[in-house]
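Hey team,

Filing this mostly as a record. A colleague (T.K.) asked me to run one chain through the structure pipeline before their review meeting, and I want the input and output archived in the tracker in case anyone asks later how it was produced. No errors, nothing strange. Just documentation.

Input sequence:
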Amino acid sequence: MADHQEASVTLPSDPASVAAARRFVADVLAEWGLPDGADTADSVRLIVSELATNAVQHTFGQSPTFTVDVRLERGEWLRVGVTDSHPRRPRRLPAAVQQDNGRGLVIIRWLTAEAGGRLSVSPTEEGGKTVWIAVPWPVAATATSGSSC
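Output structure:
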């Protein structure tokens, strides 16, 4: 197994791209040996959906694209990041504003913590940000490919 595997895709900031981001991550995880029905695979797909939705909805048209990066480090940690060019860091909305939305970050934090992982946000050199999750790679999964997309 390669020491480090990675794949990425850049998509337009359009609602249809959320499903494309989810499919991309599901395909990469399957290629690396994580079965589609595995708990980690399900959680990561939902997290990517929420992060991609945030990149589309909360950049207010200031980020024409977003990028999804998937990395498997030493077969131990799966890192997934979604980068957009809007400088504002994600934040939890007040309860009164959360009537129809605003729960994405809560879902992301909960799923990441449940998987034994962590969430972080890092600025990009271009002035945007990447929201990262890192979760342990399931022991039963074995990465089978060192290719990069």
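Quick notes for T.K.: The helical segments are 16-31, 39-57, 104-114. Residues 39-57 form the longest helix (19 residues).
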